[in-house]
Structure formats: structure tokens, C-alpha cells
Write a structure and sequence with these properties.
Blueprint (H helix, E strand, L loop, with lengths): L3 H5 L2 H10 L11 E2 L4 E4 L2 E5 L12 H14 L14 H14 L3 E5 L2 H12 L4 E6 L4 H9 L3 E5 L4 H9 L6 E7 L11 H11 L2 E5 L23 E5 L9 E5 L1 H10 L1 H4 L6 H13 L4 H20 L11 E7 L1 H13 L2 E2 L2 E2 L9 E6 L6 H14 L2
Parallel strand pairs: 3-12, 5-6, 5-7, 7-8, 8-9
Antiparallel strand pairs: 1-2, 2-3, 4-10, 9-10, 11-14, 13-14
Helix pairs in contact: 3-11, 4-11, 5-6, 7-8
């Protein structure tokens, strides 16, 4: 016999689904990577406009060879946390390569970008802190700030006057923080890192920037917008996007990295990244300076797609990077358009609330350096036929 309490204990699950509604309910789908800008679902190849494999490195033979060699030498897993016996020579080599590439004193590895942000931020701020976060910052940044127990406010997206007003209103004696992405993952626009650094300097704030969607794609040698910036205190990057691997890292001063080795739970209490993954990431970091032609091509085709959309009166927001959102409005419309594209052999996933605000459901169109003009033509043609 089930008690009333037993029946009710899972009621919150159904309530959550009902609140979200069928058009905003998520599910998992299986895809397999193919050569070039394609994924396969079952027996159907799909032209990829959804993944974050910006430079096509996830299938690069050089990364695969590096991962294979590491697996033969070190095995498939690190076996322990870094502070026990899971810190292999490969981890040290990658951290040294990242510090050199970023022109920083030190770097530390994390299992994911979410883990890095969620566990680094609580080591920097506490109840006696005020953290100001861009309104469109990634969920992992918000999670980390909230976990710190700091007071926090959102400033209007890329509104530096509003940010300064909030800094001016901060109580005396609190530790201040400014937190943002450099390239915003759902809108494809950038922040002004110099403006943020100016404000951080003026008000004595810790400047923490997530460079995930700029690394490999923007900046000198693909170094992003924050990693090499001398006035950014803490910069986070990831390997799961342009670097074609998995995991993440932070670059900062040597003293901060030593502090995190002693205080950051996301580093202390988790198994180290698997050696094959580390080796692939190291190969990618070593390749990035050589990939300027790929970066230039990527930016050119992204600009071409934005212009094609705007010429047709389609709203792609403030995008200025390889991420081009096609704003549709309601979730049902975005899903219908994504389904029409998929029927025509194109994968462009609909992004819906709560990932984006209500009324701004979109197709998040993502360019890759191996996209060619004919791929854009195919995309725009199907969009023109299926626009709802």
C-alpha cells in the first residue's frame, strides 16, 4: 500500500513538466560525427549547423593520433584526483602549454567549463561580496555566483553605464566582482573587454571572464578575447568547442592557481581528465597558431550568412561572430522550422526557454571553418521555403 506521502513525493516532477509545456520539454537524441561538416542520425547524414566544432578539429587526424598514443601510454583514465595520484605528465604539459599560449603565469585543468565556473567562483566571493553579472551570462556563471552566497545583481546586457552605476552604489568595504562571457553563446555578440577592465580597475573589482566561444576563433593566434588580456584577472577557456576535445581550464596568476589547488572543490574532489582527452587538447592548443586561414574563412562565411539573413528581413540579433541566432519568437515556430530543415538534411537545433528568454526562441546557427558557400546556399534556400 502506498501512502499519500509516497504518492506525493514525486509530484514536483510532473508539475515541472506541466509548467514547462510540451514545446519546451527537452529530450536526448543520438548523432554520430561524420567527415567534414556533417553528423549522422541513423542512416541520414545531416549538414551540421549546430555543433560548436568551430574549426573542425574533433575529427582531425592529428588530434586522433595524439589521443591514441596517450591511451597506449597511459591507459583510458587518470584513476584518481590530481591531488592523489591522478596528475600525469600530460596534465602538467598541457597546463604549461596553456600558460605559455595565454601569456599567463599559470593554468589549471577542469573536467568541464561548467564545473570550472561553478566551483571557481565560490572561492573568489563570499557573503561580504557584491558580484555584477551580465544579464545574458551563461548559466554556469550564474550558478557559480549564487553558490558563493555573495550578493549579486545583473547589469543590462553589455550596458557599461548601468554596470558603473551598480559599482558606484556598492557598499563600502565589500569585495567586488564583474562576471561575463566574452562571446555570448546564444546571441553571438561580444563584450568590450577593455571597457570591463577599465571599470574593474577603477572600482577595484575582480574581473572574471569566460572565453569559451572566443578561444580558437578570435584574437591573435586564436587566443580569444580574455586569455591574453593583461587586465583580466581570471579567464576560463574550454576544449570542447574550437579545440575539438573536452574539458576546460583557467588561467591566472601563480598565486591564484596555488590558492585554487588548496581551495577549489572542482579540482580537489574529482578524477583528473582522462589522458587521451588531455593529449587531444594539447595537440589542439599547439595547432591553434597555425589555423589563421581557417579563422579568416570562418569569419567570412559567418558575415555572409548574417548578411543573407538581414537582406531577407530575418532577425539575427546583434551577432558578430560564428554564432548566428535566427530569432523566431515562439517555441512552436522554432521547432517547426528546425524540423523542416532536418527533413531537408540540415541540423539546426531550436533553442527555447528557459535557455533563452520567453518570446525569443531561435535557431542557433553555428558556422564551422569547413562550411563552404554551397552549404550556406543550401541552408538559406530551405529557410526561405520554410519560414513560418
Amino acid at each position: 500500500m502506498v501512502s499519500d506521502r509516497g504518492v506525493a513525493k514525486w509530484a514536483f516532477v510532473e508539475e515541472a513538466f506541466q509548467k514547462r509545456g510540451p514545446s519546451n520539454r527537452r529530450s536526448l537524441r543520438e548523432f554520430s560525427p561524420e567527415a567534414g561538416p556533417y553528423l549522422r542520425q541513423g542512416d541520414r547524414p545531416l549538414l551540421d549547423f549546430s555543433s560548436n566544432d568551430y574549426l573542425g578539429l574533433a575529427q582531425d587526424p592529428r588530434l586522433i593520433a595524439a589521443a591514441t598514443a596517450a591511451m597506449r601510454r597511459y591507459g583510458t583514465g587518470a584513476m584518481a584526483s590530481r591531488l592523489v595520484c591522478g596528475s600525469f605528465p600530460l596534465h602538467q604539459q598541457l597546463e604549461e602549454a596553456l600558460a605559455a599560449f595565454s601569456q599567463r603565469e599559470a593554468a589549471l585543468l577542469f573536467s568541464s567549463g561548467y564545473q570550472a565556473n561553478a566551483t571557481l567562483l565560490p572561492t573568489l566571493f563570499d557573503r561580504q561580496s557584491l558580484v555584477l553579472v551580465d544579464r545574458l551570462a551563461h548559466n554556469s556563471l550564474l550558478f557559480g555566483v549564487q553558490a558563493s552566497k555573495a550578493q549579486w545583481r545583473r547589469y543590462r546586457h553589455n550596458d557599461f553605464d548601468h554596470l558603473e552605476q551598480l559599482l558606484q552604489q556598492a557598499p563600502a568595504g565589500v569585495r567586488l566582482g564583474i562576471v561575463s562571457e566574452t562571446v555570448f553563446s546564444m546571441d553571438g555578440d561580444r563584450t568590450d573587454v577593455d571597457r570591463l577592465a577599465d571599470l574593474a580597475d577603477r572600482y577595484g573589482a575582480i574581473l572574471y571572464l569566460d572565453d569559451a566561444h572566443a578561444l580558437g576563433v578570435l584574437g591573435t593566434e586564436g587566443s580569444g578575447l580574455a586569455l591574453r588580456h593583461p587586465r583580466v584577472d581570471v579567464a576560463v577557456g574550454t576544449f570542447g568547442k574550437a579545440c575539438g576535445s573536452a574539458g576546460a581550464f583557467v588561467v591566472a596568476s601563480r598565486s591564484l592557481c596555488d590558492y585554487w589547488i588548496n581551495t577549489c572543490p572542482g579540482l580537489i574532489y574529482t578524477t583528473a581528465i582522462a589522458p587521451p582527452v588531455v593529449a587531444a587538447a594539447l595537440a589542439a592548443v599547439q595547432l591553434l597558431p597555425e589555423l589563421e586561414p581557417e579563422r579568416q574563412h570562418l569569419q567570412a562565411i559567418a558575415a555572409e550568412l548574417r548578411q543573407s539573413c538581414r537582406d531577407r528581413g530575418w532577425d539575427c540579433g546583434p551577432s558578430e561572430t560564428q554564432i548566428v541566432p535566427l530569432l523566431v519568437g515562439e517555441s512552436e515556430q522554432a521547432l517547426a522550422l528546425a524540423q523542416r530543415l532536418e527533413a531537408a538534411g540540415i541540423l539546426a537545433i531550436a533553442i527555447r526557454p528557459p535557455t533563452v528568454p520567453e518570446g525569443t526562441a531561435r535557431l542557433r546557427l553555428v558556422l564551422r571553418s569547413d562550411h563552404q558557400p554551397q552549404h550556406l546556399h543550401q541552408l538559406v534556400t530551405v529557410l526561405s521555403e520554410g519560414w513560418v
